[in-house]
Amino acid sequence: MLNFVLFGPPGAGKGTQSQKLIDRYQLIHISTGDLFRAHISNQTPLGQQVSALIADGQLVPDGITIAMLEEEVDRNPDAKGFIFDGFPRTVAQAAALDEFLESKGSSIAGVIALDVDQGELTKRIAERQKQTNRVDDHADKLQKRIDEYFSKTIHVLPYYEAQHKLSKVNGIGKIDDIFAELCEVVDKY
């Protein structure tokens, strides 16, 4: 299996680039954000449990997130690989993902970090918020999500760098140019 983590702050373009990578490499996209939003809209017990956390811009506890992600991987036993988007967000989650994939005879091939500065992120999310009205894109919650990324989530990168799995790609520019750079990284594997 060819498994990648697409890493970056809210608004970095992970969703857009994930879709392009899926189309090109026939990988399965697992976005914890999309999974949470689906559970919330379907009002599942999990959705009810995490709704208030997400609406407040907080991270969902590791145990819930990991269990949900493992369930999603198990639903796709014939997958060529996965793109993990929005996960892992902590070193503990990264270690749990490694352990889970190892139990399946697999691993993370690479981690690709989309580099985007805070000014560009704020601009992109303000535009996205106009189009989608996502509750977690409202200004107060957005700032919490960006702060959470730069204060906590960013610390996952050294974990993968120590494993020699980290590549950084400039996330500012034309979507197709960024995608071409991502493909250069993926093609190495």
UniProtKB/TrEMBL annotation:
Pathway annotation: Purine metabolism; AMP biosynthesis via salvage pathway; AMP from ADP: step 1/1
Pfam families: ADK (PF00406)
Binding of ATP, residues: G11, A12, G13, K14, G15, T16, R128, G173
NMP: annotated segments: 31-60
EC number: 2.7.4.3
GO cellular component terms attached to this protein's record: cytoplasm
Gene3D superfamilies: P-loop containing nucleotide triphosphate hydrolases
Domain notes: Consists of three domains, a large central CORE domain and two small peripheral domains, NMPbind and LID, which undergo movements during catalysis. The LID domain closes over the site of phosphoryl transfer upon ATP binding. Assembling and dissambling the active center during each catalytic cycle provides an effective means to prevent ATP hydrolysis.
Name used for this protein in its record: Adenylate kinase
Organism (species): Pedobacter cryoconitis
Name of the encoding gene: adk
